[in-house]
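2024-03-11 09:14:02 DEBUG pipeline.ingest accepted 1 chain
2024-03-11 09:14:02 DEBUG pipeline.ingest length=181
2024-03-11 09:14:03 DEBUG pipeline.predict start
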Amino acid sequence: MRFSTFRVVGILALAVGASCSDAPTAPSRLEPDTVSDSSAKLLGLFGPRPLYCPNSTPQSTTAVLDALGGTLSLGGTSVLVPLGALLDPVEITLTIPASNYAEIDVTVTGTDHFIFQLPITVTVSYAHCSLGLLQRLLPLSVWHWEPSTRTFLERMPSIDNKLTRSITFTTPHLSGYIIAN
């Protein structure tokens, strides 16, 4: 009995250690409208788990920014475009969609993909989210993701500020982003 307990603990420790690696992670996918909250939480055992944070009211703001840069802010989320990141004026939209997860979408009108001359800084608030014990203790991260297919594409280098309950990251491109752990 004692040997089996140590074996199980050892296997779990190896699994946890392997999941904490900084090695590239293959994209993982949530099935739209078919993944229950408990299933989404189980996904965290094998890949990123989205931060459960229901929002029933979509919000959006749009601004025209140019080479001088500027900031879009909405619901505790901000997008800071530095001086020189844009060559021409563009219309940028920040959207917080109706979703069960802490996610945002940032787009430039008339483009499917947009690359800045310099990285922009995005800060996403999760102050309105209920956090579980692990989420309060372990750092959260932001993932570039495809909302239409619910696919995690790339983990963004992020700083999780537990005091302000916000997470900040830089990116050279606009896209959909989601907070996960």
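2024-03-11 09:14:41 DEBUG pipeline.report The radius of gyration is 18 Å.
2024-03-11 09:14:41 DEBUG pipeline.predict end
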